[in-house]
Structure formats: structure tokens, C-alpha cells
Specification:
The chain has 228 residues and is α+β, with helices and mostly antiparallel strands. It folds into 2 domains: 93 residues, Thrombin, subunit H (Beta Barrel); 92 residues, Trypsin-like serine proteases (Thrombin, subunit H). The protein is 18% helix and 36% strand. The strands form 2 sheets. A 6-stranded antiparallel β-barrel has the order 1-2-3-6-5-4. A 6-stranded antiparallel beta barrel has the order 8-9-10-13-12-11. The N terminus and C terminus are likely disordered.
Length: 228
């Protein structure tokens, strides 16, 4: 009996590194640990209340890509990084509702982790994707799924990876940890705020074009788009 107790005790206190993960789990863990430090939570102060969303740091001096509807009409925008530090952010550029992209900038001497962009022209229906965001304020939440459909006419990626309120502007990521889309919306025909397995993201190539053509003062476009 004593021997069994000792064995159970040792097993319970094995380090995480000693656990065995499946190949799929290793992919999820690796991608999350790679990209989450570059994901931020966004809160925008509006006349009618506040808006919450997610963003991706795309340059190490604090340039952030998010959804324009997250910060539209904001009097003040605050960004919280994955380590819990909060910063005031300025809006550099934004697009209309159809494209729904925006660029923010936080001012700090700190060098930030950044995301890497993939190529949304290479995506396939059925491929695995991961979404990272701040649903209902639960920061750094990871969900997984597949690309369910590609709507080329409307320029949207459909996915069953859970996207909920607070995830808007966050990344949709492939198995290599590259951002292939920016989470935008969910389909909710019954006006239920929760996800029913039909979410939409803007292809990252649209974001690349937006970044290239954005009129951003004091920021060289070649630097903003470097290594993406």
C-alpha cells in the first residue's frame, strides 16, 4: 500500500516536460507559445460605452493590426500586452466596414514580439487553423478548427474555430504559426452573441495591401512591411 502511494505521488508531481503529447497537441502548444506574446487586448472608449477586441503586433516598436470596427469612433484606445502591461494607443490608419482593418501604435522604448504573415492565396478548405483572442475578456484564449469555406467573392475565410465577442481583430493562424487571416465576425441568425461554429476572417493578403497603401505619418512603409 505504501509503495502504491509513493508511485501515485511521484506521478502527480512529474514535470510537464515529462508528459507525452500527440503531434497535434505539440503543434497547438508550439504555435501558441510562438505567437501569443505578440497578441494584445484592445479596449476602446466610445460615447455609448466601450468596445473590446484583439490585435497583432506587426512591428517591434509597437505597430498593431486590428479590426477597424473595434476602434471606430473611439475617444481613447488602451492596449494590454500578453504580460499584462497597459499602454495608450493612437490610431494610425483605418479602413471602412467592408474591409474592416486598422493600424494602431503604442509608444514605448520596449521592443515587442511580432507576428509573421502567411499567404492567404495558398490556404485550402479543410486545413487546420488556430485562433487567438480575448473572448469576453478571457485574454490569450486559443481555439482550433479548420477552414470551412473560402468566400472569394466577399473576400472572407470561413472557419469553425471559435470566434467570440472580444476576438475581433485577432489572428487566424496556420500550423506554422503564420497569420493567414484577421478575425472579424460570427454568423448568429438567432441573435445569440455566442459562436455557433460559423466565423469569418479577412484574408491576410488584404491586410498586406492595406499596410502597403496606408498613409502613416513618420513610418516608412518598407520598414512596416519588412519580413512579412
Amino acid at each position: 500500500m505504501i509503495k502504491k502511494t509513493i508511485i501515485i505521488f511521484i506521478f502527480l508531481f512529474l514535470p510537464v516536460s515529462a508528459q507525452t503529447f500527440s503531434a497535434d497537441e505539440i503543434t497547438n502548444i508550439t504555435v501558441y507559445e510562438k505567437i501569443n506574446p505578440a497578441i494584445v487586448a484592445i479596449e476602446a472608449d466610445l460615447d455609448e460605452g466601450f468596445s473590446a477586441g484583439t490585435g497583432c503586433i506587426i512591428r517591434d516598436d509597437g505597430v498593431i493590426l486590428t479590426g477597424s470596427h473595434v476602434i471606430d469612433g473611439a475617444k481613447k484606445v488602451e492596449v494590454t500586452t500578453s504580460n499584462g502591461k497597459a499602454y495608450k494607443a493612437e490610431i494610425l490608419a483605418k479602413m471602412g466596414k467592408n474591409k474592416d482593418l486598422a493600424l494602431l501604435k503604442i509608444n514605448s522604448k520596449e521592443k515587442f514580439n511580432t507576428v509573421q504573415f502567411g499567404n492567404s492565396e495558398e490556404i485550402k478548405v479543410g486545413q487546420k487553423v488556430l485562433a487567438i483572442g480575448n473572448p469576453f475578456g478571457f485574454s490569450g484564449t486559443l481555439t482550433s478548427g479548420i477552414i470551412s469555406r473560402i468566400d472569394s467573392a466577399k473576400g472572407r475565410i470561413q472557419t469553425d474555430a471559435a470566434i467570440n465577442p472580444g476576438c475581433s481583430g485577432g489572428p487566424l493562424v496556420n500550423s506554422q504559426g503564420e497569420v493567414i487571416g484577421i478575425s472579424q465576425s460570427i454568423f448568429n441568425p438567432d441573435n445569440n452573441m455566442s459562436n455557433i461554429g460559423i466565423g469569418f476572417a479577412i484574408p491576410i493578403n488584404e491586410a498586406k495591401n492595406f499596410i502597403k497603401t496606408a498613409n502613416i505619418n513618420n513610418i516608412k512603409k518598407s520598414e512596416l512591411f519588412a519580413n512579412k
